[in-house]
Amino acid sequence: MQVLLKSARIMDGSAENRTQDILLHNGRIEAIEDHISTPKAATVWESPNLCVSPGWLDVGVYAADPGYEHREDLTTAAAAAAAGGYTAMACFPNTDPALHTKSEILYVKNKAKDLPVHCYPIGAVSQGCEGKDMAELFDMHAAGAVAFSDGKRAVQDAGLLLRALQYTKAFNGLIINVPHHKTIAAGGQMHEGLMSTSLGLKGLPALAEELMVQRDLSLLEYSGGRLHIHLISTAKSVALVRAAKQAGLPVTCSVAVANLCFTDEKMADFDSNWKIVPPLRSESDVKALLEGLMDGTIDFICSNHTPWHEEAKNLEFTYADFGMIGLETTFALCQTFLGKSLSIRELVEKLSLAPRRVLGLEIPQIAVGQRAEITVFDPDVEWVLEEKDLRSKSRNTPFIGQTFKGRVLGVFSGG
Predict the structure, then answer these.
(1) Which of 34, 250, 328, 347 has its CA 20 to 30 A from that of 297?
(2) Is the pTM of this model over 0.70?
(3) What radius of gyration, in Å, describes the C-alpha atoms of the chain?
(4) CATH number of the domain at 55-359, please?
């Protein structure tokens, strides 16, 4: 199969600004030139502002496979990822059984090997993601786990996290933790603030996150190792990570796209699709998150893709589960709501290059002879998300009917 990308702006992180034709043939980049005559059998892709970048990678996808395939499975998660411009996803271990031994890691790798999107399993820190006994980290590392986390379940036991940081130093492993102190946040429904008070809902205090950020940074300073703090959402969390980086600690962090774009004002209508963790915070928190993203304190943006079946979300607000799907809409949200703050090059850095650097993965090259792992998009196209556009098995999103600016045209991942 041959595909010709006409007048493509190549956004690969280099300082050079190139607009060239790109010819793909059987999964490889055959030619990159100022002008390529269209081969007879080639399919031509054109758009007014066609852009090409190394394929995007999303960290912390909940693919729900094995065990919860009624919510999502690896095939539908991969389809949603491809529709959203991702050529790779790193999947959390909160499955049944959890991804806590090499057998489950190999299951994910084998099941995903023929999918259009690379699937990198994240092994559990503890057996069953239960936060008690440390899992078989080295065996999972040898089997192909790219990092270790209890995923949606934050590691509450400081001793367990400390031992995991110390143990993974032997093979330069990465620990990922979500900062969420469950006893302080117990029963919370949304961000604790004026809006939660006015709605009569119990709040999720910023303190529940910030205590965990400070604890994890203190453990890292004591033990060494590599730590990624996943999905920070408050101004103080940004300040804590910024200070830690300035002090030389080997820490990275990420933010969910929804927390960059929206505040807790969205909760006014009690739409359970906005009920997520971390919760939508205040305007000052959103401003601090964006500043942290711009100055490099926050390394990359995540979709926080959390699929739920209808029976889990279409309930009274207090009974609905936390989470929304996000793979298909992350880029469009960034371009629509953050376009004045983030350039396309900066967005590619936060969606493609930085996640791979954090996980220690090779960055795909846009060069002749290289395997094609690229995302093709137009940042200026306007479109409306319809339910038929969703490839995820779940439908828990508030964005159906939303007009977006910026659309993914397709991805190429080898063949």
Answers:
(1) 328
(2) yes
(3) 21
(4) 3.20.20.140
